[in-house]
Write a structure and sequence with these properties.
Elements (H helix, E strand, L loop, with lengths): L2 H35 L3 H7 L5 E2 L10 E2 L4 H9 L18 E4 L3 H10 L6 E4 L3 H22 L6 E4 L2 H6 L23 E4 L5 H14 L5 E4 L6 H7 L8 E6 L7 E6 L7 H11 L3 E4 L11 H17 L5 H12 L5 H8 L1 H14 L6 H10 L17 H24 L1
Parallel strand pairs: 3-4, 3-6, 4-5, 6-7, 7-8, 9-10
Antiparallel strand pairs: 1-2, 8-9
Helix pairs in contact: 3-8, 4-5, 7-8, 10-14, 13-14
């Protein structure tokens, strides 16, 4: 055999070998992909959490140590294997409720807004007292909110039973034997909103329980003001981050804006669908672009700085709450100042949020102001509106409310006579 023929034969053998290797790799990829798809979703999620584990080399392919130290890389890889979210039908929203988890100061307000426009709502809480207070609040205020918008109130029910809250309409129909009817299970919530205290372990554990119980098309939303759902998805035992997102309400129904932000893996179809549903009940959504994670979202990043400096001024004795708020109202032509707003939110909530921010951003330097707030107010049970006294006493707050009412009346009269 001459040199030319030998060279041609060697090249052919090399090409055959490369083709065989490529085919083998293709078969391996197909096998791995198929095998993972056939795993239960929870095991898929587990397979995507190789923290500090080395992947064994396969066919001489270079491997790397995968740590998933950022929520974005973890969620991006996790999303490759999670099912896509499909919107529930408009017809089903007439009988499938919005589930609000937590009947506290914000939860009951969120429930009120969603119960307008003939929407059914279920409120879940482990406290009967909290549910009773939520019922009283909604009874007193839902009619007025609907009258203002020209809508009709929906049915609101409360429960301390999580199974009832997550698998039925909240007031399940039963057959003659007292068993829940099969049709009831088609009326499970389409949206679940957790409105719990600012604790990452608490929120992640509750969201994980909700995720396991709710239908696969149910949107999971957190009302956290400082914790991102990207953090929750990484830290918690959550397998369906494609239907998880932040929906940050303020103090509805007075404040109608809601900030929406992705978990890092939220299905893109959720945002336009949920925004449309929010508008139907009088809310105005503001969506943080997908791919961006902003701790504090939009407004709270600005508001956090205002609260921090207000507490510093108070703790240093530079000014009193009434003086700070008077300056703020005068300069911004605002109805209320930062001290009155913090009393509304709850000083315990203010402290938890600032503590969370301080743990992640120690350079903020708000330790002294936070310690002052805790010792002078929180430890003495002075939490603001929820307890009575706060930065303002009950009497001072009542006087401020009367002033706000008179200012509004005067403004109307001047406008009418202009």
């Amino acid at each position: 055999m001459n040199a030319s023929a030998s060279s041609t034969l060697a090249a052919a053998r090399s090409l055959t070998t490369r083709r065989a290797l490529t085919a083998s790799l293709g078969n391996i990829r197909t096998f791995i992909t198929t095998s993972i798809r056939e795993l239960p979703v929870a095991k898929q999620a587990a397979s995507l959490r190789p923290r500090n584990r080395h992947v064994a080399p396969v066919l001489g392919i270079t491997t790397f140590k995968s740590t998933f130290t950022t929520s974005q890389s973890f969620l991006a890889d996790k999303e490759l294997l999670t099912p896509k979210w499909r919107a529930p039908s408009d017809e089903s929203l007439e009988y499938r409720p919005v589930l609000v988890v937590g009947a506290g100061n914000i939860g009951r307000r969120v429930a009120l807004v969603w119960a307008s426009n003939s929407r059914p709502v279920t409120i879940y809480d482990i406290s009967q007292d909290a549910l009773r207070e939520a019922t009283e609040y909604i009874t007193d205020n839902l009619g007025a909110y609907c009258a203002e918008r020209g809508t009709h109130p929906g049915h609101v029910c409360t429960t301390t039973d999580l199974r009832t809250a997550t698998t039925t309409s909240g007031h399940p129909e039963r057959n003659s034997a007292g068993e829940i009817t099969a049709q009831e299970h088609t009326r499970a919530p389409w949206l679940a909103i957790e409105c719990l205290p600012e604790s990452l372990p608490l929120k992640t554990s509750v969201l994980a329980r909700l995720e396991r119980s709710l239908p696969s098309d149910c949107i999971l939303a957190s009302n956290s003001s400082s914790l991102t759902t990207a953090e929750m998805a990484v830290e918690g035992d959550l397998a369906h981050s494609h239907r998880l997102l932040n929906t940050h309400y303020f103090i509805p129904p007075r404040n109608r804006m809601v900030e929406l932000m992705s978990s890092g893996a939220t299905s893109g179809a959720i945002f336009p669908f949920l925004a449309m549903q929010m508008r139907r009940v009088g809310l105005t959504p503001v969506i943080v672009p997908q791919g961006i994670q902003s701790r504090g979202f939009v407004f709270n990043r600005i508001w956090a700085a205002c609260k921090r400096e207000t507490l510093a001024v108070l703790s240093e004795g530079v000014a009193k709450p009434g003086d700070i708020d008077a300056l703020f109202r005068d300069f911004f032509h605002a109805e209320k100042g930062p001290c009155e707003r913090m009393d509304e939110v709850g000083l315990d909530t203010v402290a938890r949020v600032e503590q969370h921010n301080l743990e992640r951003m120690p350079w903020l330097g708000s330790e002294k102001a936070l310690a002052w707030l805790k010792s002078n107010y929180i430890e003495q049970g002075k939490l603001g509106e929820k307890s009575g006294d706060g930065l303002f006493t009950v009497a001072e707050r009542d006087a401020l409310k009367e002033r706000h009412r008179l200012d509004k009346y005067r403004e109307v009269e001047e406008t009418a006579g202009a």
